[in-house]
Specification:
69% of the residues lie in helices and 8% in strands. InterPro entries: Peptidase_A22B_SPP, Preselin/SPP.
């Protein structure tokens, strides 16, 4: 879930030895690697930046509606690395026992539907704006209920219009392209959509919860990348848009290039939901600045840059959270200590008013 793997450059030493015999790929050029790593860097930071601001809007809408979002408790955060470890090892065993082709066929179908919906959620508003005024629009309401009278309840209650249908169709075409070709651009479009949606919709409501979660995944990432071959094996076997990829031989082979460097989406979403929380904390201070968000964002950039440098230097897969977690937790906390906001930071809670109201109702 959280790893950075130069899929072919990890094997550069072997490739150098075998390329002359026609048994290996030609190693990536320095220019090709620079383009690949730079592109991965940009594709990692953009979803965090965009998703963080979208999370502010999402939380505001929930607050206005009086709805409390599903958030992670301290216990949930502590258990998450253990659950993730069981899931990762389970997937590894499945790949060892069953045919990789059949498993990936099921995964492809599953992620096709998820990817189309995620991409529609992101691209839909932009497509609707492009169609505004030049497209005969019409509203629709899909309603499916069960029961009668007082027992009647909604199973499906969805309002949409023709522009939404066009957005779904456009994203569906991209999904078919992914099914047909498994092209790296289609993979990245789905991966970026998953990342932005994850940062926007997944919620941490307290900084302390984020510290527990990131701390646990820090250990998880190190163990599964350095302690075993499980993470790397799953990442290379799992043909689904759960990673961003970019070819290192783009200059030589163009869009048909296939010598990829890759970055797991977990290395984007997990730090991203913490950085999004810092942005909401900034706005709660009402200081007309986003100091802690930018501190977390700069820390992520530094941590990711360090990951890429060490990965390239040692030619070995790296647990990205080894570098991202200390940076993303350390720099904002250090800034809060200097500014005297450390207590306010750890006392901050999203939707605290809703929680207090629920508690008072329970007391009654």
């Amino acid at each position: 879930m959280a790893e950075t793997v130069p899929e072919q450059s990890v094997l550069n030493d072997t490739e150098n030895a075998t390329a002359g015999n026609g048994t290996g790929k030609i190693p990536a050029t320095p220019e090709g690697m620079a383009i690949a790593y730079g592109s991965l860097f940009l594709m990692a930071v953009l979803p965090i930046f965009i998703g963080s601001f979208r999370s502010v809007t999402y939380h505001k809408e929930q607050k206005d509606s009086g709805e409390k979002p599903d958030t992670m408790s301290h216990k949930d955060a502590a258990m998450f690395p253990l659950i993730a470890s069981c899931a990762l090892f389970g997937i590894y065993l499945v790949f060892q026992i069953f045919s990789k082709e059949h498993i990936n066929l099921l995964l492809t179908a599953y992620f096709f539907f998820l990817g189309v919906l995620a991409l529609t959620h992101i691209a839909g508003p932009f497509i609707s704006k492009l169609l505004a005024g030049a497209f005969p629009n019409q509203d629709y309401h899909l309603l499916l209920t069960q029961g009668k009278g007082e027992k009647k309840e909604d199973l499906v209650n969805y309002e949409f219009d023709r522009r939404d249908m066009v957005s779904l169709l456009v994203c569906g075409v991209i999904g078919v392209w992914y099914l047909w070709k498994k092209h790296w651009i289609a993979n990245n479009l789905f991966g970026l959509a998953f990342s932005i949606n994850g940062v926007e919709l997944l919620s941490l409501n307290r900084v302390s919860t984020g510290c527990i979660l990131l701390g646990g995944l820090f250990v998880y990432d190190i163990f599964w990348v350095f302690g075993t071959n499980v993470m790397v094996t799953v990442a290379k076997s799992f043909e689904a848009p759960i990673k961003l990829v970019f070819p290192q031989d783009l200059l030589e082979h163009g869009l048909s290039a296939d010598n990829f460097a890759m970055l797991g989406l977990g290395d984007i979403v997990i730090p991203g939901i913490f950085i999004a929380l810092l942005l909401r904390f900034d706005l709660s201070l009402k200081r007309q600045s986003k100091l802690y968000f930018y501190a977390g964002f700069v820390a992520y950039c530094l941590g990711l840059g360090t990951t890429i440098f060490i990965m390239h230097f040692f030619k070995h897969a790296q647990p990205a959270l080894l570098y991202l977690v200390p940076a993303c937790l350390g720099l904002p906390t250090f800034v809060a200590l200097i500014k005297g906001d450390i207590k306010a930071m750890f006392n901050y809670e999203d939707h605290a008013e809703v929680s207090a109201k629920e508690e008072s109702q329970k007391d009654k």
